[in-house]
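pasting for the record
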Amino acid sequence: MTSTLFLQTGKDRDMTIDLANPDLYTTDDRFEMWREYVTSDAKVWSGPGVSPSGFWSVFSHRDVSTVLSPKSPFTSEHGMMIGFDAEHADNSGGRMLVVSDGAWHSVLKRLIGPFLSRLRAPEFESVLRHEVKEIVERLKSEDSTDIALEVGPRLPAAIVCEVIGVPLSERERLIELTNHAFGGEESTFDKMTPAEAHTEILFYFHDLIERRQQNPGSDLVSALLADGRLRTEDVLINCDNVLIGGNETTRHSITGAFHVFQRFPGALDTLHADPELTDRAVEELVRWTSPATHVLRVATEDTEVGGQEIRKGQAVVAWLSAANRDERIFPDPHGFVPGRTPNRHLGFGTGPHHCLGAALARVELRELLFRLAAEARAMHLRGEVQWMRSNLVQGYSSLQISVEWR
């Protein structure tokens, strides 16, 4: 179903397009589309289609930052992605971290935040180094590797298992289920769809919650249960939120690192020569890959964004991936500049819903980039880059890479 799009750019014109259509994001053409929208400060209305009530879209760094500002009259409680709005709300709204606001959101942040903070990074160092070592050894043993399927999902899944408190004996199966649920290609589960794998994960969490009720530990599940304010179902959906948030975006940045080093060969040599640039390179990687394509908010009152009136109850989609290519903020926006500074990217969002797992994602990416820069000389693409068919995640369905080692 195609919807009518109204594009406000200073000169009105009608077009027919639905920005919710996932087919728009399977090629590099989207970057040119976003460039046009960003430079014209476009405000786009997509009528009913994939989204039952339609939605506004904003693209520039300024407009996206405005919508996500804590002072702006918008809420995430109706849902945070295209398809939700005031009349078609997410049934997890007001219960799960990513779709709650106000006092309850603060409660969940205080409970979950410490488990994802940089202060916990030292506890994960041995897991990180082991997983990165395994990744490098696997790459060295193969002529070429599909990074999107076989490398990208593994590191974040291992860290999330550590956070949630999955016992070592059960970790491998949950990692494989997670890879299948969100990567869709785990051969161990060739008779199971990704949706069925996600259902298996939910069953696993339910079982883990029952065990932690009997034998509490020092993990996230135990902390959520001990608080006393969360029902069992609330614990389950917030663990699922942490699992998805920790996997679905970071894995595409990890895959994107290999894409970056293939497309911009000088970046490997730059980081090899100056390892102190690694932290800046991590920020640039998150900007360049922008795995979270959009977030949605619903207006809580009549307002305006960049001169465009928004009515109470209307949904507004903030396109993070477009804002992160705004050349007014990022000179050479399509290039990869390892030492870029300042780098006010929105890859982790901004405002009250700034990604709670950002610190751990940075630690994971830093360890990987440091190791690759130390040992890899060049990356070579074997086959075409295949993008996911998704309007929510800017990620890879396949990236076949061979590595030339130092």
